[in-house]
Every structure is written in C-alpha cells, then in structure tokens.
C-alpha cells in the first residue's frame, strides 16, 4: 500500500506489517500512481519532487536499488509494464507539459521520451498501449523500448478527460465531465 510518506507491505492473512519504507513527502503532494510489483521488485512513482523508487522486496524487508526524480515523476498515472519495460507519463498536468516515457526499471535508465505528449492514462491490452490523453485523444501505440511507435490517434472528446478509462471485452470506456463513451478497440463486437 502507498501512503503519503511510506510504502507498506501487509500480510493479507493476518494484517501484520511485513515491511515499510519511506516514499513521498509532507506538504501538498499526491501519491496517486499504484505501486507495481515486478517479480521480486517494487516500483513506485510520484510527482511533486518525489520521483521514483525501485526496490528489491522480500517477506520481511525491501532494499532500494535506485531512486530518482529524473527517471519517472508521475503525478497520477500508473505506469504499465510490457516486456520488462515501463511506459508512463512523466511530469505534471498543472506545471509545464508532461511527456510520455519508456524506462528500464532494472537500471533506472530513461530509454526514450516523447516531449510535449501531455498527461493521460495508459492501459496495456493485446500487446498494445491504449493511452487516453486528458486533451480527449485516444492513442493506440506499439510498446517498444527503442522508440515511441504510435499506430492510430482518434479524438474522442473536445473537453478535458481526467477520469480513468476502462477496457472490457474489446470495449473501451472513457468519460469527460458530461459524457460516457464506449468504443470498440478489439477485433469487433461479439
């Protein structure tokens, strides 16, 4: 679990704390991106000067292998994993322009950055990335650690989209403040 200033692992059977390590900061910050467990490692990211942390986890502890505010600083979007790499939005919606980024969590290296991409939410499905941008655009992309590979972009809304999208049986659900839309993104309706 991710709290304002700590990551805490709890035994689901007993509720006992397995381990805790510092992450986050006091003040007007948000830890909104979900922690990601990748094998025996944990990745967490937040904006507001917090950055990202990659830790090796065990039942009774966690050891930080790297941490940096220059690799991934996600305001609210949870990164998605594909092929051992993480894809996510680095930066804040309210300060400057955020960017789409691919990182290697094992090394803490940024592999590529798409500057000026803006903020949004990512879903991985059928080996592709669906990115619902806050500007109302839906981007379909091929995940690649070498470069950004967009396949298609369609404008779904002319207003700001901040709600998290959902995907179920080839149906992509997204909403702005007034309208919920459902579009087919799979092979076709069944």
How would you summarize this macromolecular structure in one to three sentences?
By secondary structure, the protein is mostly beta strands.
Give me the secondary-structure topology.
Blueprint: E1 6-10, E2 17-22, E3 36-38, E4 41-46, E5 51-58, E6 61-68, E7 80-82, E8 85-90, E9 99-104, E10 109-114, E11 120-125, E12 128-133, E13 137-142, E14 149-155, E15 166-168, E16 171-175, E17 180-184
Antiparallel strand pairs: 1-2, 3-4, 4-5, 5-6, 7-8, 8-9, 9-10, 11-12, 12-13, 13-14, 15-16, 16-17
Give short descriptive properties of this protein.
190 residues; mainly beta; four-stranded antiparallel beta sheet
Structure overview:
Strands 3-4-5-6 form a 4-stranded antiparallel beta sheet, with no helix packed on it. It has a 4-stranded antiparallel beta sheet with strand order 7-8-9-10, with no helix packed on it. It has a 4-stranded antiparallel beta sheet with strand order 11-12-13-14, with no helix packed on it. The model has no long low-confidence stretch (mean pLDDT 88). A hairpin with a 2-residue loop joins strand 5 and strand 6. By secondary structure, the protein is an all-beta fold. Helix content is 0%, strand content 50%.
Overall pLDDT score: 88
In DSSP terms (H or I, runs of 4 or more residues), the helix count works out at: 0
Computed over alpha carbons, the radius of gyration is 17 Å
Q: What are the secondary-structure elements, in order, as H or E?
A: EEEEEEEEEEEEEEEEE
Uncertain segments:
none
Per the principal axes of the C-alpha atoms, what is the gross shape? globular
The biggest sheet, with number of strands, parallel, antiparallel or mixed sense and barrel status, is:
4 strands, antiparallel
Strand arrangement in the largest pleated sheet = 3-4-5-6
End-to-end Cα distance: 37 Å
Overall helicity: under 10%
Structural class based on helices, strands and sheet pairing:
mainly beta
Strand content: over 45%
Overall strand count: 17
